[in-house]
Amino acid sequence: MFEKKFLTQDGRFISAVCYGTQDFSSATLKIVCLHGWLDNASTFDLLIPNLIKNLSTTTGNSVKDEKDVSIICFDIAGHGCSEHREDHVYNFVEHVGDLYFILSKELKWEKYILLGHSLGSHICSIIAGTFPKQCEKLVLIEGIGPWTPPASDAVSTLRRSLLKKRSLEKDKRIFQTIEDAAKRRAEGNVINKLPIEAARILCRRGLKKNGDGYSWASDGGCLVPSKSRFTEAQVFSFLKNIQSKTLLILVNDGLFHKRFPSLVFLFGKPFSFLGSIWVEFLYYFYKYIFMPVISIFIDTKKLKMLEIGLWYVKNFKSKVRSVDTTIMKIEYLEEGGHHPHLTKPKEVSNMITSFLSK
Fold first, then answer.
1. What is the predicted pLDDT for the residue at 229?
2. pTM here?
3. Is 228 a catalytic residue?
4. Pick the CATH number of 2-149+225-258+324-356 from 3.40.50.300, 3.30.70.20, 3.40.50.1820, 1.10.287.130
5. Annotated catalytic residue: which of 42, 70, 82, 118?
6. Which of 32, 53, 55 is closest to 111 using CA atoms?
7. Distance of CA 269 to CAs 4, 150, 194, 198, 331, Å?
């Protein structure tokens, strides 16, 4: 394992943790790994060693040892040890541009495997759809395609972005010890709680020295919502253009079940045939019948969150179904939360090894 810095088109540096050969062009297996929002390259610290071990012992695989592999785990701009943008503005398409420039111009890789978690899976999905000939295989963990809110949320999205920008003038929180920061990261995970052991791993690259203590290394600008986003139809067009075999790994106590009521899953997974119809019914019934009636009697601001949750499930289901079913494979883990590659690295590694070896 070694560290490497890559330059983007506008001269910023993107840090990465690299595994395998230092001669990037000689590897027979090239894998690009992208982490989730507010995480960093250390999120793959447990997964990649397991994956290399598995691949080197799999019969019929071209990987004999680490010299045959080049796996690069990037810190996305504004995260981990990568440079912050001068304007502190992070738009999704710029992340895509940064990575594609590095892959095509610096590394000069013509083909590679993309592996992403959460936000990283969104970026990988778009790269795979934009440049389908370059992506050999696509591995997505707890995510697919970028988040696309309802068109009716455009006004509130821009408002939140502009107001949040002002609040960034406040100083970052200072932690006295790395352990204090790890405890805060474990308790404050956006999707669900993160085991303290996993939080400690993320803190390896997620903190910087600040006076007598530590503060988050990520740019505060990463917390600002994008001023605009892709529409649902635009995201579908990227996903429909994916040509590589795709593995989507989901966890039963991960992205969905920790955020949305069990009613959503009454008829199974939201992208099964029956589950799909059920989610569509729930969303439109809630939005156009339940909400208008109940709003006569009570303030519906809190109930709006459930509507957004149903939209998210409906949208995720539609994104999954927009990928060619002949190339898409979905695997489930019973438990592991939103970060299964940190909490269940061997199980996730086994799934990926099996997928890559076929």
1. 84
2. 0.88
3. no
4. 3.40.50.1820
5. 118
6. 32
7. 41, 22, 24, 27, 12
